[in-house]
Write a structure and sequence with these properties.
9-stranded antiparallel β-sheet, 41% strand, 528 residues
Length: 528
């Protein structure tokens, strides 16, 4: 009886030990895996034992991409899908391109036979040179003894915080012949800078900003027009202010340069047809100067563009203390509380209410000009049609304004027009507000990404023409994902496909435009 009891206890112990060994032969899952900023790729059945063709992840749920190649001749794929080399040392290379900066990388390999665990190296390109990193952590996850050698899983990890890497390569190799690579798992934790789309269906505040509006913040439509001050100039008089709270749709409180903006679009529904001609082009300030003033030019098209600006505040108010129902002008003050504004070269909000200063005429580019679909320039603006304002992100001041607003949690815009106003005039446009019962409220669409670290700083050193080629020298921490585009009129931009940068050392780079270029060409180096 004792014999059978002891025999049963021995078998039970053996069974438990075997189960523990089998369960230990599963890959370890990092605690951050499965999050929105994490990706994974798993290989269990390989197709190519040798050569550049490589092996793609084959396990369902793999979303990180990557490819594994084995570069030693003699490698083959076994019937179970392993990579096996009977006579030589297998050398494996895993390449991955994330499309977003890495924070953490974890590699695990399951093999029959040993790998050289202390020589596994992650490499990347920096300033034209290859940088190689050994792992921060290297350990054995599990081991299963076998008659033909042990099967084991090994784990390596790298901390890549702040390096702004989007492409890596990892090399690992067998300790000797006869190694059989059974499976590989790659986990990556990325910087949360993938593009996000946000639609804000209605403003949190909007108002027809006009001194004689008796129902501020409650009017159904907002007409926009100019006024003329004799001997002084032309002002943006009746304006439409719209404020959009971006919290909680967009995280606030980050440094402004952590917000990368791809597109911003404001949509307004036109109101009654006031016989305003549609003009989708910018009108220079010289076209508004009085007859006989030197430098005056004729406006070659009908109508006046509808412009979009930022919004500034004064008289002790700011973007959070100002309310849509506030007075147009504070008691005892002379200037309006809220005004159309741009960011000037010093990064301060500048009042552009005086659109045309007769003594000092100056062109001021708006954030955007309203565009109507399928309406020809010169036609009357139709009623109940969507006008779209695609903000010009080639203007750094516009981007800075948007970033500051997103960091604060609120974006406020002012819509204006230099169409003529006045009693009895019906030649200016108007738009439905959020208080309109018959129309649809304005909306805002944004596409952006957020960087957890500040992006690389780019500084142009010089632009020189050598023979028929333009050379641009600039400073940058990294040229990963940098793009170049050019324009001659700041309206149409032309992108350079796959620009090649040459390192000059110490963070200095050079790019050469070898194309036939006109005498006037403006370049922009940027990271989208």
């Amino acid at each position: 009886m004792n014999y059978f009891r002891n025999c049963f206890a021995w078998l039970n112990t053996f069974f438990l030990l075997s189960m523990n060994q089998v369960s230990a032969m599963e890959f370890e899952i990092p605690e951050w895996a499965g999050g929105s900023d994490a990706e994974v790729s798993v290989w269990e059945s390989f197709s190519h034992g040798f050569g550049a063709e490589g092996n793609e992840p084959d396990v369902p749920g793999s979303n990180a991409g990557g490819s594994i190649t084995q570069s030693t001749p003699g490698g083959m794929v076994t019937g179970t899908g392993n990579i096996y080399n009977p006579a030589a040392v297998s050398v494996f290379t895993l390449k991955d391109n994330a499309g977003s900066s890495y924070r953490r990388v974890v590699l695990q390999a399951k093999s029959m036979g040993a790998l050289v665990v202390n020589e596994v190296v992650l490499s990347y390109e920096s300033e034209g040179e290859t940088v190689r990193m050994v792992s921060d952590e290297s350990r054995e996850v599990g081991r299963l003894e076998g008659n033909r050698g042990d099967t084991l899983i090994h784990y390596w990890s790298w901390n890549l915080e702040g390096k702004s890497l989007e492409s890596i390569s990892i090399e690992f190799k067998a300790r000797g012949p006869h190694l059989s690579l059974d499976a590989v798992r790659l986990d990556t934790l990325l910087v949360a800078d993938r593009a996000q789309d946000v639609v804000i269906g209605s403003p949190s505040m909007d108002r027809w900003n006009y001194p004689f509006n008796v129902t501020p913040g409650k009017r159904a439509k907002a007409p926009v027009f100019r006024a003329t001050q004799e001997g002084i100039g032309i002002t943006r008089h009746g304006t439409f202010i719209l404020g959009f709270d971006t919290i909680p749709l967009i995280p606030s409180g980050l440094p402004a340069d952590h917000y990368s903006i791809e597109s911003v679009k404001l949509r307004l529904l036109t109101g009654s047809n006031f016989e305003a001609h549609y003009d989708p082009t910018y009108d220079p300030v010289a076209a508004f100067l009085p007859e006989g003033v030197p430098g005056r030019i004729d406006d070659e098209d009908q109508g006046f563009p509808i412009e979009l600006f930022g919004t500034g505040f004064r008289n002790g108010l700011d973007m959070f203390s100002w309310k849509e129902t506030d007075d147009f002008i504070a008691n005892g003050e002379e200037e309006r509380n809220a005004y159309p504004a741009i960011l000037n070269d010093q990064g301060n909000l500048e009042d552009v209410t005086l659109a045309v200063n007769y003594e000092d005429p100056r062109d001021v580019k708006p954030f955007a000009i309203g565009v109507l679909d399928e309406i020809l320039p010169g036609d009357f603006i139709p009623e109940d049609s969507w006008m779209e304002f695609d903000l010009d992100l080639s203007q750094s001041s516009t981007v800075d304004y948007l970033r500051q607003g997103m960091a604060a949690g609120r974006l406020i815009f002012t819509v204006t027009s230099l169409a003529a106003g006045g009693q009895g005039s019906r030649t200016y446009p108007e738009f439905h507000t959020s208080d309109s019962l018959l129309g649809i409220a304005p909306s805002l669409e944004l596409r952006f990404s957020i960087h957890e670290t500040s992006p690389s700083v780019i500084k142009i050193l010089d632009l020189k023409k050598v023979l028929d080629q333009w050379n641009i020298r600039f400073l940058a921490d990294s040229v990963n994902s940098l793009r170049i585009r050019w324009t001659h009129d700041f309206v149409t931009w032309n992108s350079i496909s796959d620009p090649e940068f040459q390192t000059q050392g110490d963070g200095e780079w050079m790019w050469t435009d070898g194309s036939e270029s006109p005498n006037i060409r403006f370049y922009q180096i940027f990271k989208p």
